[in-house]
Every structure is written in structure tokens, then in C-alpha cells.
Amino acid sequence: MAQVGFGVLGALTAERDGTALALKGPRHRAVLARLIVARRRVVPVTRLVDDLWADPPPAALGALRTFVADLRRVLEPERPPRAPARLLATEGPGYVLRPEPQAVDAWRFEAAVQEAAGLPADRALTRLDGALALWRGPAYADHADEDWTRAERTRLTELRLRAVEQRAAALLVLGRADQAVPDLRAHLADHPWREEAWRLLALAQYRTGRQGEALAALREARAVLADGLGLDPGPALRRLEADILAQDPALDLGLDPVDGTAADTAAGTSTDTAVARLWQRTATAYDRTLAHGARARLESTVGLMRSLAVSGGAGLHAAREQRLAVVAAAEEYGDPELTARVIGAFDVPAIWTRSDDPELAAGVVAAAERALVALPAGDTAARCRLLATVALESRGSREPRAPQAARAAEAVARRLNDPALLAFALNGRFMQSCTRAGLAPERDAVGAELVDLSARHGLVVHEVLGHLIRLQSACARADFAAGDRHAAAAEELSDRHELPLVGVFTAWYRALRSAARGRTAEAAAAMRAAAADLAGAGMPGLETGLLPLALLALRIADGERRPEVDLGLDWGPYRPWVEPFALLAAGDRDAVRAALRALPPSPADLLYEARCCLEAVLVVESGDAELRAGVRARLLPAAGELAGAGSGLLTLGPVDRYLDALAD
After folding, report:
1. Environment class of residue 544 by beta-carbon count within 10 Å: exposed (0-12), middle (13-18) or buried (19+)?
2. Does domain 4-103 have CATH number 3.50.50.60?
3. Quick one: which of 111, 132, 135, 115 has its CA closest to 123?
4. Tens-digit pLDDT profile for residues 287-325
5. Over the stretch 66-103, which tens digit does the pLDDT of each residue have?
6. Residue 431 in contact with residue 406, Cβ under 8 Å?
7. In what order do the strands lie in the sheet with 94-97?
8. Which CATH architecture has domain 111-131+146-284?
9. What does the domain layout of the chain look like in residue ranges?
10. How much is the pTM?
11. Under DSSP, is residue 103 helix (H, G, I), strand (E, B) or coil?
């Protein structure tokens, strides 16, 4: 289905699959703009007539119907005669325009700004840059004088100003205050009464070593507000001025809200400043109390790394960078119990079954195995954590040691009756539950136990993990009612406990749900948006190659059996299963058969069934009868499922379709 998009952040535009549409005269454009303003709600014909004409002529109603008919021909040129319009529809007393949620630039902008408010600063900055780039001029620029655009133009303009300030706040959090200063100066030149912008400017100047300029900016703000509005600065500006004069160390700690409204930011600044002061006092006391190189300092470092990891983005990347160095430092003490504690303390829940850093994972596994050999025999928490670590960090591999370690860790945790240990061990078991097709029910049982166990014992991050595992399993059996419940539960916990990575997986889930319901264009747009959010989340093992694979899966699910593929894209670890499609499209069946025989063993991960289905298509289309039975036998345990949907990310349609094709 063609994708129709609209632009209102500037002059009105419409395009179909990227090609601009001719919208005829100003009345046609006004009808379209008025329906976009209504945001998918019906606009009565009488209201449209009144909005289009200050003094409606007798033939106004007929003219309106002509405008609508002309627009329908432009927007849906392939619609059969007398077939009901789907995009610009007649409903009740009027007309309604129903574009997809991502089809209007203003709606995409609004969604991006809202999402950015809940993201880490690095991802928020990327999201806001993309959102602000959508603006080509004033909103509804060619209808700026119409009463019916006034409220929407005002709302969008205010949101844009807040987005500019959110972006500056994100730069401050990321330590890039020097980049924020010129942007804020330009912003204030056009909008001098924005108190939040003055606050951010002064803070940015202070953090770049320009204390005098910061105080001068606050004095300038005071004068502008007094002269222009007869107001004194609000509490946020007054508090910042006092903190700068006192040279409060908290101003240099990089903490700053990324919200954008003056009232919310003022409250946030007060809270963040108090937290920053508390952090600094505690860190100073810690430095005075513990010698540099003390073992307690080493173990505390792992706790900080764990907190960084669950924050996602730059935090996850930083934790990963330092982890092996911390393990190596622990090993230098020659104390296997210390090493075991340092390795096992990094019990960060993991949902994706492919490693983000295979070299790091191999190093951690090797250290864990060395510590296991050196530890005394017997059931101990340290041994359990090491075994669970081996299972977790061996994700995606087919080493027999990995599932063995998972089973051993679970058994020890159950004997010790330790809920936190059991949650960690169950995560390891989950990581080793992709060794063949059709294991979604087993994973669902792990997720159910994690949810129950974690809810009873306050293990929030593992409770979220359990819901995400159950969400994946619900997708495998196409139970989207259950999927919606688990997505909502995970997001609610994420919001309360600041776990931003959850949104990455629920966004992909909703794209998958659209794909499973046959809404291909909607699913493709949602997948592209989810991939944009995933960029910078600190999970290359998930991100690399995912978007092109998901879009290819959409095409195959829609019935394409010889899809053309662009091998210039980054297909990541999925490339060996994609390259034969290029040979197939070129008609070289012998080369396809040779490529199939040269495929590496499929990794034991959540996309195992998806790769099996790709092989099934290639086997059938290439006429390779010898490989049919093997592929069908591997795929048969997943009969009745949605192919690849157990990943929670993508689907190639029903597994049974591929089994039937292989049986012919």
C-alpha cells in the first residue's frame, strides 16, 4: 500500500511514496489543512464551509464536495470507482482524514519531543535533533491568518521552543555546554522572555568557565523581564544566581533536567541540586575512608557499573568498557572469592540472546571458569553467580558448557533458597533456551516464574525482564492481548524506576504487532522509528543488521519469495542468510544451492526460527530437494507459531506456511 505523508511544519505539503503531490488551488489546500488540524476527528460539513469562506456563497456545499473529490483522486489514485475512500473518508455529518500516526510531520515532531523527555541525554539529543529538523518554517505557514489554525500553531510553536530548550539541557548533561551557548543566544534573541532559556544559558556559561558572563546573563534576564513584562525572575533563576555566587560544586556535576518547562525544571533543579550535593558529600567521605586500591572500593565499582548498565546508552557502553578491567584487577589479588564476588555482582538482566561484545564476553567467561576451579567445592552463592555468568555471557553460542552451567546455577540457587540468586540463574536459563525451534513455551515458563518471584521479593529489574520474556513468548503464539498486558506492565515499572531500555523493546513489539495484523506500511514505519530510537542505546548485538532484516521479513511475510536485497546495507550477523537472496533474484539457482550448503550453524538465539524460515524460502525457490527434509525437521517444533515472532521484534508470518511449502 502506498504511503501518503503530509507536512505542516512550514507550507502545506503532501507526498506519496516520497513523490510530491499536486494539490491544485488554495481551497483544496485549505480543506486538507483543516482536516489535518482536526487530528483524525470528523469535521462537519457546516464547519468546513464556515472555515473556508468568510461569507459562504450559495454553491459552497457543492464546491466543497468537488474539492474533496479532487483531493481523493490525488491522495488515492488507485482506488477503484465507487470504492469507499480510506484516507479522506465521509463519516456521519462530515469528512475525516485518517493518515498513519507517522504520516504527518507535526505528529512525528510531537511524539519525538515527548519520547525525548524520558530518554537518557545522548538518545534525547539525537531524537530532538531529528524532531527539530522537521521544521521548514512556521507551522501552517500558508494558513497562518486563519482562525482555525491559531490554537494548533500556538501549541506547536510552544512545543518547538520547549524542544530547543530540552536540546540545550541535554547538551549540558553530556558535558557539551560550549555547544549550547550559541544556540541559546540565538533562541533568546527571538524569544527573550523564556526564563528557562536564560537559566540554561547562564548554567552553560558557568560550566565553560565564564562565571562573569553567567551572572551578566542573569542580570540581563532580570532587566528583560522587568522592562517587558513587569516581572521579577522566577525561583529557578534566583536559585541559580545564588548557587553561582556561592560557586556551589553541584553546578559542575553535570546534573540537569531535560524537560523544558520553567515550572517543572525549577522543581527538578531543586531536587537535582540536593541529590548532587548529597552525592558529592558521600563520595568525598568514601574517598577519605577507603584507601585507593582497597578491595571494598573495587567491589563498589562493580555496583556503580551495574547502575550504569541498566541506564542504557552511554552508561551501558561505559560499563561494558570497564568491566573486564575490573575483573582483571580483582584477579590480581589472588583471592578467588573476591574475584567471584566482582564477577557475580554484575547481575544485570539480559533480554537479548546475542552478545554486544563477544570479546568481552569470552574474557568474562574465562575469568569465571578460572574462579570456579579455584573456589572450594560446595553450594555457595559465589559459585552460583559464576555459573549464571557463564550461562549469560555464552549467549548465542552452541558450546555444551553453557546450558550445563545454566542448569547447575539454577539447581544451586534453588537449594540455597535465595530469590535474588534464583532470578539471576533463571536469566541464565533463559539465555540458553534457544538451542532449537519451538522453545517459546519453555521461555514463557521462565518469564512467569521471574515475574512472580521478583514481584514477591522486590527485584524490580528482573520483574521487568520476566514481563519482556513473556511478551516475546506471547508474540510467538500470536497472543497480542497477552503481549499488550506484559508490554504495559514492563513500561509501568520502567517509568517508576527509570529503566529507559524497556521502551526499546516495547516499541519493536508494537511494530511486530502491526506486521502480524497485515499492516505492512504501518509496521515498516514503526520499525524505522524503533530503529532510530535503538541507535545509541548501547546494544550493538541487538541493533546491528536488525532493521534491514525486519523489513526483509515484512516483504517475505507479504508473499515475496524472490525479494531483491541491497547487499550494501549493514546486515550484520544475518548476512550469510541474506546473500543467497541476491543470487536467487539473479536467477542463479546453482549458486543459491551452494550458498545454502555453506551456511554456518545457526546461532542459538531468539531469531533461530526466523533464519530457518529464510532457509526454507531459499530451499524451495532453488529447488534443492536434498535440503528440504533437514530444514523442515528443524522448523517443525515451532509449528503453529508466528515465524521469528518469539524475538518480540519481527515476523515472517505463520511457521505452518513454510512447513507446507517444504512438504510439497
Report:
1. middle
2. no
3. 115
4. 555 545 567 767 777 777 777 666 666 666 667 777 888
5. 999 999 999 988 888 778 888 999 888 889 999 988 99
6. yes
7. 43-44, 94-97, 88-91
8. Alpha Horseshoe (1.25)
9. 4-103, 111-131+146-284
10. 0.61
11. coil
